[in-house]
Specification:
Layout: H1 2-78, H2 84-94, E1 101-104, E2 109-111, E3 114-127, H3 128-139, E4 144-154, E5 161-173
Antiparallel strand pairs: 1-3, 2-3, 3-5, 4-5
Length: 175
């Protein structure tokens, strides 16, 4: 009987040890599951914050670029005023285009800190490539010159030519 009791005690101790090992393994598994979940959550937050920082960097770069463009435009607006009618005539003459019909649209207007002067230009019998060259030439001046409106009419006598009416404006900061 002594052997049987010792064997039973030994069997019970083994069962208790196996149960304790199972509980320990289960506890380790639960802890590792929690740690892994917390690490994944932190990695997701880091990825989200990295994305926000990258977007912020792009926005900051865009802002700096726009500020530089604004500074350049303001410098052009502060430059010597462009004599619009002579600028249009000279640009046309440089390209071999007769620019004879020039009319100021109205007195210079002032709004929102800018002074605008506009001229209406009528061009008869001009082909589209030369008109495009003239438009590019007009807008490449030292000051701010913009072609605000273009009206084209086809010609019945020559379909390759058009009659064009342009409204060209120059802008300057109010003094």
């Amino acid at each position: 009987m002594a052997v049987t009791r010792t064997t039973r005690t030994w069997d019970v101790a083994r069962l208790v040890g196996v149960a304790a090992l199972a509980v320990a393994l289960f506890t380790v598994w639960l802890v590792s599951l929690q740690v892994g979940s917390a690490m994944r959550a932190r990695e997701e937050r880091i990825a989200q914050k990295s994305l926000v920082l990258a977007q912020f960097g792009k926005l900051a770069d865009g802002y700096r670029k726009r500020q530089a463009e604004r500074g350049a435009l303001e410098a052009r607006l502060r430059a010597q005023p462009v004599p619009l009618m002579s600028h249009i005539a000279q640009s046309g003459a440089a390209l071999g285009i007769e620019v004879n019909d020039l009319r100021p649209t109205s007195a210079p207007t002032e709004l929102e800190g800018l002074r605008e002067e506009s001229v209406e230009v009528n061009l008869a019998r001009i082909d589209l490539p030369r008109l495009a060259q003239l438009l590019q030439s007009l807008e490449r001046s030292a000051g701010v010159v913009k072609v605000r409106r273009i009206r084209l009419s086809t010609r019945q006598d020559d379909p390759a030519l058009v009659d064009a009416t342009l409204v060209v404006s120059t802008y300057q900061l109010k003094s």
